[in-house]
Amino acid sequence: MIEILNSGWYTSIQDQGRMGMQEYGIPYSGAMDMNSFNWANKLLNNPLNAALLEMTIKGPKLKFHIETIIVFTGAQMDIKHNGNKASLYSPILIKKNDVLECGACKEGCRTYMSVLGGLQTERILSSRSQCDHITKSGHINKNTILQIKKKSFELNKGVTLKSPLPSYITKEIEVFKGPEFDLLESVTQLKIVTQTFTISHLNNRMAYQLEEKIIHKLPEMWTTAVLPGTVQLTPSGTLIVLMRDAQVTGGYPRILQLSNHALNILAQKSTRNVLHFKLKSFE
Amino acid sequence: MSQGKSFLRIFQYSETSILLELKAEPKLDLLNELVVFKNLLYSNLSGIKQITLSYKSLLLQFSNPLKKYKNLKEEILKLYSSFDSSKSTIKSKHWNIPVCYESKYAPDLSILSEHLKLSHHQLIKLHTKPIYQIYFIGFLPGFLYLEGLDAKLYYPRKKSPKLKVSKGAVGIGGRQSGIYPNQSPGGWNIIGTSPTSMFDPNLKQPCFAKSGDTLSFYSISETTFKKIRKNRIPPNFREIIL
Prior knowledge:
The complex is a heterodimer. In chain A, 10% of the residues lie in helices and 35% in strands. Chain A contains 4 helices and 18 strands. In chain A, strands 1, 2, 3, 4, 5, 6, 7, 8 and 9 form a 9-stranded antiparallel β-sheet that branches. A 7-stranded mixed beta barrel of chain A has the order 10-17-14-15-12-11-18. In chain A, strands 13-16 form a two-stranded antiparallel sheet. Chain B is an alpha+beta fold. Chain B is elongated, with a radius of gyration of 20 Å. Chain B folds into 2 domains: 7-87, 2-Layer Sandwich (Gyrase A, domain 2); 91-241, Cyclophilin (Beta Barrel). Chain B has helices at residues 28-44, 69-82, 109-116, 120-128, 222-230; strands spanning 7-14, 17-23, 48-54, 57-62, 91-100, 132-137, 144-147, 162-165, 169-173, 176-179, 184-186, 189-193, 214-220, 236-241. The A-B interface holds A 19-27, 124-125, 133-135, 176, 178-179, 222-225, 227, 229, 247-249, 257, 259-260, 282 and B 11-15, 17, 19, 21, 26, 49-50, 52-57, 59, 61, 66, 69, 136-143, 145, 182, 184, 199, 201-202, 205-207, 210-211.
């Protein structure tokens, strides 16, 4: 098992989430940056949906009570393994009583730590992803105990991958037209896809608000379906990008939809980071 | 083809999803049409992972990125023009939901009673009389979007939402009435509390109701409230045909 000595800024257990449960009003959840999530599991030859830790802004301090192998992916981070520097994208052999101290995220804001075989924490509605109202807690806490599987093989040779960091640095967020985009006046449409937006401090696993306002005359609408990556435009002109833990319905016009790739990139951005939307069409 | 079928807009929403939107005002026959069409799509289109329903649309999500969107669009249009929702034999359920309207469980009942110029008794009678249509679940896990509130009970939301509305609280917000499945912030005026569990993540089907079902409220005493909550008694229902 893994003991949490310090939970970091915001650390939660995530897998691919609860796709298929939305008719009950259950959020999708799952790792914010699916690309880094997939790499973390691939590097350990884990099942695709193995649960891992998603660390936000600053990572936790952990003590291992069992031998295992772990891998870090996502945003760069200073990691101390028993006081020695450890790298991302390379398997780390863990011995009993090892202590891992995770620092602050750099050039991104979410770092992932996968464990051989995946975390064996509670599974609710076919997912281990933590989410308020669904699991007991929305995140891990000090003294949380994470059960893991016994290590079943020896690590022969570590594989290191070149970190895919440059993709996070891009300011370009690829989007498709949302169902209500064509209701906007063409000058407003043009403004949205050409101007630069700043991420407000109101950003979390549910949604990211953007600071710059877009004045519009869109009418009110009936509550309707939304997805992670849907960009809503509120009556006061605020753009809200829905993220993985968003509600499954919403009443604001849906002006844009992020591509899967863009959603993963945005998940690595945080307060005061800037971005611009690049409009694409489906092939 | 049935008469008066609404115009169907088909829109690719994401790499893996398609939005079907009907140009019509939400009302009962539209909901039935959506429920029946949803079932038809599930059984006729391959690769569908999930279809979610809202007031006048269906969101179709597929397992893989859509490669043949045009073909899919034609197939959907063909299915839409050939189906007849009036011939449906889909079974739905009508749920009887107990509500305790006693003052301890109804913090805003007196305010509403005063402003709407209705006695507590009249207010409760108007709230328990209609058959509410369950459109879909959203906002919070297990939160039912209900239509059917008596116009005499329309009452605006609070200007500033309360930080804590208790689990099971039954409220009125504008033209809607609903039940808070969990303790959460909320701006509706609370006129009662239901002991029925609206959402339990430990169950395979975490919410008993679904789109197309109906619901009505009935008044219970505090003693009954406590008994139902303590013994987690599920609500009564009867089967109905859409």
